[in-house]
Amino acid sequence: MRAANPEEFVCEPLVPVRGTAQTAAMARGEPGLPDAFTWRGTRYRLLGVIESWKTSGPCRSGADEIYLRRHWYRILTEPRAILTVYFERQPRNRKRLKARWWVYSFRHRSENGRTAGPGPADGRT
Known about the structure:
The protein is mainly beta. The protein has one helix at about 25, and strands at about 10-15, 15, 35-40, 40-60, 65-80, 80-90, 100-110.
């Protein structure tokens, strides 16, 4: 059976609303997840973080070191959605140096707050 509300993979930049970064995270050396941002012309408000994680990778210059690459967050928003967003610590595209926050995937939430298919509604936190 196909999920009625599938996760959509998008990989598009989001634009944080100025002054809404979570400064406590920044004091710990982590990116300040924005409490509000614009994506695809819609302003979203952060309601909560479902889960967060980090990914790392090898040095791009060939050295034998591992670097933290991205901070990931699965978030609840208003308007009703569950988004997976990430912060790229070292932008790869020189033309888009300011594009550090990205929407990786998107899923609409139903009126009762549940989603269809695998994801946060399946008991994972």
